[in-house]
Inverse folding.
């Protein structure tokens, strides 16, 4: 992921980033459900150990790199759970920032 940030910065010098954070538990359950629907046979614990790269769920590292690369004022972070509750407010915050 961090390599993609550098490539993006090199191509889009003056851009803003929007980064959505999903509750990790909800994300894992959703990914596991898709895995099972597509024929996966591992139980949830085995799925987490063998299929999921937990390092990809360390949002803080990714956010820090985004902010260092593009500047804090150019990175908007939101929680996906809040969008569903207040979509209008979410859109207004994007407009203001």
């Amino acid at each position: 992921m961090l390599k993609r940030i550098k490539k993006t910065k090199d191509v889009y010098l003056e851009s803003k980033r929007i980064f959505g954070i999903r509750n990790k538990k909800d994300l894992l359950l959703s990914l596991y459900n898709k895995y099972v629907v597509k024929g996966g046979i591992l139980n949830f614990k085995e799925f987490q150990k063998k299929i999921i790269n937990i390092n990809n769920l360390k949002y803080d590292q990714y956010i820090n790199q985004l902010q260092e690369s593009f500047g804090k004022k150019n990175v908007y972070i939101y929680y996906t759970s809040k969008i569903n509750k207040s979509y209008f407010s979410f859109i207004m915050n994007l407009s203001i920032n």
Q: What stands out?
A: The mean pLDDT is 84. The beta strands are 17-21, 75-79.
